[in-house]
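Hello,

Our lab assistant flagged a job as stuck in the queue for most of the afternoon. It eventually completed. Since we weren't sure the result was trustworthy after the delay, we are filing this so someone can double-check. Below is the sequence as submitted and the structure that was eventually returned. Let us know if re-running is recommended.
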Amino acid sequence: MIKVAMIGCGGMGNAHAPTLVKLPNVQVVAACDLIPEKAKSLAEKNGIRRHCTDFRELLPDVDAVWVCTEPFNRVDIVTTCAKARKHIFTEKPICRRLADADTMIAATRRAKVKYMLGYCLRFWPMPYGLMHDTFASGELGELVSCWMRRFMPWDPQRWYAYQEKSGGVMLDFGSHDMDWLRWVGGDVKTVFARTFRVRQGTQGDDHGGAVLLFKKGGMATVEDSWGAQMSETSIGIVGTKGMITVGNDGKVRKRIGYDGQEQVIDGESAIAIDPKGNLGKRDASGAIEKVAARAESIQEHFFRCIEEGAEPRTPAADGRKTLLTVMALWESARTGKAVDVDSIARKRRKA
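-- returned structure --
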């Protein structure tokens, strides 16, 4: 039985807690928040016996922590928990500043504990897992282009509304998309971007987009918005042998070759990814077949990694790369020039 404490009892803490308390190999022993009413409320709603305002008092009694605090309020929590040899899950993004990311990663590596981020798209079989694994299988050939466009009209409040705290739409919301695109195409070499503040009086970027060139070849485009007037979703991958895409209707469409027949893939096909993240069975043509095993949730994955000593699918090092790519996006938007992602890290080291 793995004992875990919830740290941060706001929106995301309340989203994760009902799932965590139902896991058979996990015991949520306490809920913690700087606002005592929030900790008490989450604990009572989920049958958690203990609640408090100082996470440090919980560390002797747990094996892991599930951190859902704001990204600018995380360094002390992660480094303190690492020193106490506790495994750590934190929500995304990793943080707001590269130096903070390096501090947290170094602390967890010294302690030899698991440190995983909440980039949930890698754990949603439909459409994200299915599309990624179809490409990873080689069925689509070499990468030509991939893209994500997600518009979610929203007027952010509290800390989300401020660029210096949330990073705006391209870090808080868009880093999900950047993480998925990096999952498909690998590390990003060059970024050319624009950001906008559409809503009158907004204090942070609420619309942005970029062209990404991958180190291994191929390109991506990403565009995200809180400031658009309508919802919009488009995701796709173009390869040298085929293409897979999904739009607002939610239907995944795939075609192999110019003469191939377009296929509409039903949602159940997405469970072809087994609980360990392996590709599902394939028929003689290479197409994914359905299998009985269902995909693993992000919560199940974290605790399995602890039990088996496995590397998380969304390690903190990947979160650092995503942060670095978004920072290159900001620099490109500021200067109007294409920016080499690695140059951002070099500048920070010299600073």
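-- support follow-up --
The delay was a queue issue, not a problem with the job. The result is valid. The CA atoms of residues 232 and 298 lie 25 Å apart. The chain has eleven helices and 15 strands.
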